[in-house]
């Protein structure tokens, strides 16, 4: 464990807590894409299949449980909670996210480190996570008024993978044989997808005005 | 198995 990875995990944790806080306290998921939340639930479900078979540390297992629990409960809130589900703007959240799942699965079947069931699904979860934010970014462009919590959620979610990139650089420099091109490229693509969001987020923060993404 | 090392990440 290094400071970059810890910062990344804490930023990721903060992002899901911000979202859960928003949904649980104000009972609203306005501006949040259910498609992205469903994709993230699939990402964690396929990423952490080894939660029962391999144990690394209490921290590792605890964080996996938190990410699994939070992503599935957010999906549950947005789909089934009587108050929250009414605030979900179904008409705007129309990204065909299943069109993201299949290519990622095919790619994982083609490009992976080892051709085993767990490894292919784990690689699939990496590819899917890289694009999981797309429905949310599309939704943000459509809903003009981005409330602070949703903006913070996306910002933290984008930032965590940025910290992971620093972690990979650090581990590459300090650990022999630590080379994982698939993880690195997927993580880089993921972070780059946030580039324009980050730009407009900083602009709104610097000029102290509402976050508005260009249509 | 080098890939196992990577699995200690979330």
Automatic annotation (TrEMBL), chain A:
Transmembrane segments: 55-77, 98-115, 121-140, 152-170, 182-202
Highest taxon above the source species: Eukaryota
Primary residence: endoplasmic reticulum
Any matching Pfam family: ER_lumen_recept
InterPro entries (UniProt xref): ER_ret_rcpt
Compartmental location: Endoplasmic reticulum membrane
Keyword Transport among record annotations: yes
Record's keyword terms, sorted: Endoplasmic reticulum, ER-Golgi transport, Membrane, Protein transport, Receptor, Transmembrane, Transmembrane helix, Transport
Topology versus the membrane: Multi-pass membrane protein
Family, similarity comment: Belongs to the ERD2 family.
Protein's name according to its UniProt entry: ER lumen protein-retaining receptor
Species: Camelina sativa
